[in-house]
Amino acid sequence: MQAIVSINDLSKTYQSGFQALKKINLDIAKGEILALLGPNGAGKTTLISIICGIVSPSSGTVTANGHDNVIDYRKTRELIGLVPQELTLGAFDTVWNTIQFSRGLFGKKKDKTYLEQLLKDLSLFDKKNHELRTLSGGMKRRVLIAKALSHEPEILFLDEPTAGVDVELRKDMWNIVRRLRESGVTIILTTHYIEEAEEIADRIGVISNGELILVEDKQTLMHNLGKKQLIVELKEAVSSLPQSLATYDLTLSDDGNKLTYTYDTMSDSTGITALLQNIHNAGLALKDLQIKQSSLEDIFVDLVKEGG
Prior knowledge:
Elements: E1 3-13, E2 19-29, E3 33-37, H1 44-51, E4 59-64, E5 67-68, H2 73-79, E6 80-83, H3 95-105, H4 112-121, H5 137-149, E7 155-159, H6 167-182, E8 186-191, H7 194-200, E9 203-208, E10 211-217, H8 218-225, E11 228-234, E12 250-252, E13 258-263, H9 272-281, E14 286-293, H10 296-307
Parallel strand pairs: 3-8, 3-9, 6-7, 7-8
Antiparallel strand pairs: 1-2, 1-4, 4-5, 9-10, 11-13, 11-14, 12-13
Helix pairs in contact: 3-5
């Protein structure tokens, strides 16, 4: 894996004594989409702020494409684009002036063709001469992305990119992120929306209480930690499990109508065939069967509980 961002033993303790980050180690591959999940106050925004050079670490180092973000601050900042969570835009600036000014801040030469194409890619071209105060919240979010990409960064940080955005626009944003990745941009996003990470991320990182609990390929994570459940609906409710079923990992629903059997899909034998035979032998009649796969949300909740 060719790392474009390397984080080594990164810690942050504020003057109040609050330790926001605890020895974070993470390599981010060039061209990947990494989603950072974690509850409020977990340290996600602090981590992004340190990498972008906005907040100083208490210890540890960050390099972007081999450049130390403290020693080579200007160089690393040129490599990075940041879309903050807050809608920080001037009310009376136009879309065009905003992105042109942002490009100039990084010392980039004027490039009308690039900026126009950027606005077209973000469905903003017809709004280029509009004042920002006239735009919807979703359009302002797109302007923030355009602003972050105006200087052609190789790394893009998105802090809660779809916060407050409706479902339809959220899916549009996912498509934008995919297109950016296809163009070679490395993307790191924080999100509260589990489905967002499940939909677009290559790898998932889980942060809790300032610690990086786990970083894993999304499919591997769901394969290794995900569970499958067989839900058996009975024709008639029972008050308790028959003794002959006591050896199985079964849970009886409160109303006595359903049995839930959790099993490991990686095992040589799931035990389902024997279970169903024993349910029949116990005199229980089946009404319906259903298979349920753990979602990323289930996995996330379990990980945070363990990390807490």
